[in-house]
Amino acid sequence: MGLLKGGINEVIATTGFNAAPMGIHYRDGKATMVLFSGSHTAENVRTERWLVANFIHDPVLYVRTAFEDLPRDMFVSEPVAGMTMQRLAGADAWAAFTATVDRTTAGTLIVSLTPQREIIENAIIHPVNRGFGSIIDATVHATRYVKNRDPELKDLINYHTGIVRKCGGKRELAALDILRRFIENRPE
User: Fold this and answer.
1) Which Pfam families match (predicted)?
2) What percent of the chain is helix, strand and coil (3-state, nearest 5)?
């Protein structure tokens, strides 16, 4: 299996008909995740014991899946390891894992991932785009900001907004507009 690279791999994880941006930690040949207790992803992993990492280069989907549920027609069911798992229909590649909860803390689940299957759907090269990276970072900060309105997180979002505006393409700018609406429409 070779889709994951060393460090934290940003993917859109699917667990059933649920999708959310997640970071998969890959070090020394081992894949792990930290999931927030109470999230749909954490509950699905705890009960179903599987997860699919979707490698996708659409910044709009990263923002949408951070804040809303996708319609079922955006998922494809795949038979993997005797189970039926769901992946995103538009993924460039995907990797299916069985998942084991190694440890539970007050607010998180520490999960080990065991690879079961990898498929490259589209062999597409995506040049490095600082706007794309900054929309991912702004989205991560925004998921926390909408819960606690920490001014330091708002400053980080504004910093990454500037990079998206300077370096992003049309999809990154569209994702930024969506992100700003999610932030502004959340109650203080």
Assistant:
1) DUF447_C, DUF447_N
2) 40, 35, 25
In a domain, 99, yes or no: yes
pTM passes above 0.90: yes
Cα distances from 160 to residues 11, 61, 93, 138, 163, in angstroms, run: 19, 18, 27, 6, 5
Inform me whether the pLDDT recorded for 1 exceeds 70: no
Structure tokens at 114: 């065991």
- Residue range 71-102, pLDDT digits in tens: 999 999 999 999 999 999 999 999 999 999 99
141 and 116 in a common domain:
no
Rounded to an integer, what distance in angstroms lies between the CA atom of residue 25 and that of residue 68? 24
Q: For residue 174, what are the domain limits?
A: 130-184
pLDDT value at position 65? 98
First to last CA, the chain: 44
Q: How confident is the model at residue 2 (pLDDT cuts 50, 70, 90)?
A: confident
Which residue in 56, 18, 64, 21 sits closest to 179, CA to CA? 64
User: Within this chain, do residues 102 and 151 fall inside the same structural domain, yes or no?
Assistant: no
In a domain, 38, yes or no: yes
How many domains, the chain? Answer: 2
